[in-house]
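Appendix B, Record 12. Input sequence as logged:
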Amino acid sequence: MSFAEYANFDGLGLAELVRKGEVSPADLTEAAIERIERHNGTLNAVVYKAYDEARKVAAGGAVGPVGQVGVAVAGDLQAEEAAAGGG
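Logged structural output:
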């Protein structure tokens, strides 16, 4: 399934695909990372790229109602890792 097809689903829909085994959390993570890398040069929307952390989470078990569907957090939040690096 391509990222274009993922766009037809909201977070709960993607979680359902993961639950059914139609797609893996790792697939969703890699598709999102690819999309970020393709468009972020123009948009500059993602400042702190936590790709390694996202991949680790995707490799773990499902948590919560959206399982292993990742999210991007916008706003003035500062992750512990970013704070350690002066982010």
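Residues 34 and 68 are 17 Å apart (CA to CA).
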